[in-house]
Specification:
This protein is mainly beta. It has a single domain (2-369), classed as YVTN repeat-like/Quinoprotein amine dehydrogenase (Methylamine Dehydrogenase, Chain H). 4% of the residues lie in helices and 47% in strands. It has one helix and 28 strands. Strands 1-28-27-26 form a four-stranded antiparallel β-sheet, with no helix packed on it. It has a four-stranded antiparallel β-sheet with strand order 2-3-4-5, with no helix packed on it. The protein has a four-stranded antiparallel β-sheet with strand order 6-7-8-9, with no helix packed on it. The radius of gyration is 20 Å and the shape is globular. The termini are far apart.
C-alpha cells in the first residue's frame, strides 16, 4: 500500500510542478474563466522581506483563449512523437528541447528543426559547443551541431539523475521503497561521485532540483510523507537546511531560477496557490497569492515570465505585482490525463511553450510575444 500511495503522490507532484533540468532558468496557474475577450489585470503585490502576502490575484477580464487557434500564437514546430519531456533551453538563438525520442534544436526566428541526438534522454544541458545528456545509466555529451555521443561517466547502480550542472550531474540513490538517500555529484571526467549530503524524504525521492549561487535547492519530505519541504545544501557538500516559508503556506515545488532569485510555488490551507521569490540565502522576499498551478519561471524582457498550465503572467522588474498577458485553455471539453501546457522558455519578448493534448495539434511548440 505504501508503494502505491507514494508512487501516485510522486506522479501527481511531477505533473503539478514540472521541472526542466535542462533549463538553466528553471518557472502560476489558471484563474477562473469568465465571458468575453481575454484581457489583463494586475496581481496583488507582496511586501518584499516582510512576509506579508499581497492581496488580490493576477487576473483576466474575460475568458481564456485556446492557444492552438489564437492567431497571435505562431507555431514553431511540431514536437517529436512522444512530446517534450526533457525540458527547454534557449541558447544563442536556438531553442533546444528533448523528448523520449531524442534532443532537437530549432532557430527561434523560425526554420527547420535539426536532430542533435537521436536518442531519448532523461535531461540535457547545452554547455558551449557541447550538449551534455543524462540517461538512466550514463552521462554523455554530443557536439552541439549533432553527431555521435561520447560517454563521460556511468551512473552507479541504483542511482537516478537529478540535475545537470556546470560541475557535474547531481544524482540520488533513493527509491520509493526507502525513506532516506544520499545526494552526490557525478563528474564529467569519469571519476567516482562525490557526496553532497545525506537526507530523509518520507514521501518518495526528492524532486524539483535547481542551483542558485553555490547552493543546491530541492524538495523532499523529511518529516511527513505527504508534506514536501524546500531544502538547501552547498553544492560542494555540507549541512542540509530547510528553507522556511511564510506562516500558513505549504511548499509545493520549485519553478525556476531567474537572475539572483529562485521562484517557488506554495499553497495555503484553502488550496490557494502562491508564488514566492527566494534569495540565495533561502529568505522569502515577496510573494503573490492566488496563482493556481504554476509550473515555470523564466527570464523575459521587462521582468519574469511565470507560466502555468493555463496562463502566462509577466512580473515587472523589482515588483511582486504581475500582469496577466494571456490566459490559455487548451482542449476545452476534451478529456486528457496530461497537463495542458508542459514547459516554458523565453528569449526577450518571445515566450515558447509546449502543449500536450489530444489531436489536433498534439505536442506542438508555440510562441507568444509579450507586449
Amino acid at each position: 500500500m505504501r508503494t502505491i500511495f507514494t508512487s501516485l503522490l510522486g506522479f501527481s507532484l511531477l505533473l503539478g510542478v514540472a521541472c526542466s533540468d535542462g533549463d538553466p532558468d528553471n518557472g502560476g496557474s489558471a484563474g477562473a474563466s469568465g465571458s468575453g475577450t481575454a484581457g489583463s489585470g494586475a496581481a496583488g503585490s507582496g511586501q518584499a522581506g516582510s512576509g506579508t502576502a499581497g492581496s488580490g490575484a493576477a487576473g483576466t477580464t474575460g475568458s481564456c483563449v485556446d492557444p492552438r487557434t489564437e492567431p497571435s500564437l505562431a507555431p514553431l514546430t511540431d514536437a517529436a512523437g512522444s512530446g517534450v519531456w526533457a525540458g527547454f533551453q534557449i541558447d544563442s538563438g536556438e531553442l533546444f528541447y528533448g523528448d523520449l525520442d531524442g534532443v532537437y534544436a530549432q532557430p527561434i526566428a523560425g526554420g527547420a528543426r535539426r536532430t542533435v541526438l537521436n536518442q531519448g534522454v532523461s535531461m540535457f544541458k547545452v554547455m558551449g559547443d557541447k550538449v551534455r545528456v543524462a540517461t538512466a545509466t550514463a552521462l554523455r555529451e554530443v557536439p552541439r551541431a549533432g553527431g555521435s555521443a561520447t560517454e563521460l561517466n556511468q551512473l552507479p547502480l541504483g542511482h537516478t539523475a537529478a540535475l545537470l550542472t556546470p560541475g557535474g550531474l547531481v544524482i540520488h540513490d533513493q527509491s520509493f521503497l526507502e525513506d532516506e538517500g544520499t545526494l552526490s555529484l557525478l563528474g564529467y571526467d569519469g571519476t567516482a561521485p562525490s557526496t553532497i549530503a545525506a537526507y530523509t524524504s518520507k514521501g518518495g525521492p526528492p524532486l524539483h532540483f535547481a542551483v542558485l549561487g553555490d547552493r543546491l535547492f530541492f524538495s523532499a519530505a523529511p518529516n511527513n510523507e505527504q508534506t514536501k519541504e524546500l531544502m538547501s545544501v552547498p553544492l560542494a557538500g555540507g549541512t542540509l537546511a530547510q528553507v522556511p516559508v511564510p506562516s500558513g503556506l505549504r511548499f509545493r515545488g520549485i519553478l525556476g531560477v531567474v537572475g539572483s532569485n529562485l521562484y517557488a510555488a506554495a499553497e495555503d490551507d484553502f488550496l490557494k496557490n502562491t508564488v514566492m521569490k527566494i534569495d540565495a540565502g533561502g529568505v522569502v522576499g515577496s510573494y503573490v497569492v492566488n496563482f493556481g498551478t504554476a509550473i515555470r519561471a523564466v527570464a523575459a524582457e521587462g521582468g519574469v515570465a511565470i507560466g502555468g498550465i493555463e496562463f502566462l503572467d509577466l512580473w515587472k522588474d523589482g515588483q511582486a505585482a504581475g500582469e496577466r498577458v494571456r490566459c490559455f485553455e487548451v482542449g476545452a471539453g476534451v478529456s486528457s490525463p496530461f497537463p495542458t501546457i508542459h514547459d516554458y522558455a523565453a528569449a526577450g519578448k518571445d515566450v515558447f511553450f509546449s502543449i500536450r493534448t489530444p489531436e489536433p495539434n498534439q505536442n506542438a511548440i508555440q510562441r507568444v510575444t509579450l507586449p
